[in-house]
Amino acid sequence: MGVKIGINQIKRDMFIVVDGQPYKVLGYEHVKPGKGQAFVRVKAKNMRTGNVNEITYKSSDSIELADFEQKQMAYSYFDGSSYWFIDATTGDMIPVDANIIGDDAKFLKEGMEVWIYLDKNQPIGIELPKAAVYEVVHTEPGFKGDTATNTLKPATLDTGAEIQVPLFINIGDKVKVDLRDKRYIERVNE
After folding, report:
1. In this protein, which residues make up the domain named Translation elongation factor P/YeiP central (predicted)?
2. Of the chain's two ends, which shows fewer C-beta atoms within 10 Å, N or C?
3. How far apart (Å, rounded) are the C-alpha atoms in residues 103 and 42?
């Protein structure tokens, strides 16, 4: 059994156990209805299936913290079905099935440091860094003098991922991307 904490101590990005399954907390909201007991609505992702569920707890409930290992490793290569990561200190390699990584795979770059989550030595998920820089390899041309920042257009990054960028971004530009919500942050001059 993992450590138990009161539901009011819950935090985003925490790992909890629900019905024997590991979940990552994506968000939560304390609800105090006019009548009845206060409760906490938790949005959490099942680290084994990738499904996102909403779970409701009474404010007096306790939750169990998931007891698994986190390892920081660098992305190495994709073999067609698994993404391989290397531990820089030991040289150990770990394959992570493409289904576990899901859409995050489009943002992986060679050498990128990620957190790998292991449950009983089995990879159950990864966490990308908060942000990373990519090169734009395709986007429609912007218009001279068009500096509107609230109008967006699609752009393809050097990893194949597609995000929305402001109109002034052109092919060859480097852009910083928030990897938590996959949004453009700023243009980077390197």
Report:
1. 70-124
2. C
3. 22
What integer pLDDT is reported at residue 24 of this predicted model? 86
Task: Report the alpha-carbon distance of residue 175 to residue 189 in Å, rounded.
Answer: 9
The CATH architecture that domain 69-127 belongs to is Beta Barrel (2.40)
For the stretch 87-143, pLDDT in tens is 988 999 999 999 888 889 999 999 999 999 887 788 888 889 999 999 999 999 866
Q: What is the pLDDT of residues 3-22, one digit of tens each?
A: 899 998 998 878 888 988 88
What does 105-156 look like in DSSP terms, one character per residue?
GGG--TT-EEEEEEETTEEEEEE--SEEEEEEEEE----TT---SS-EEEEE
Q: Where are the domains of the chain?
A: 4-65, 69-127, 131-188
Question: 131-188: which CATH architecture?
Answer: Beta Barrel (2.40)
- The CATH class of the 4-65 domain is mainly beta
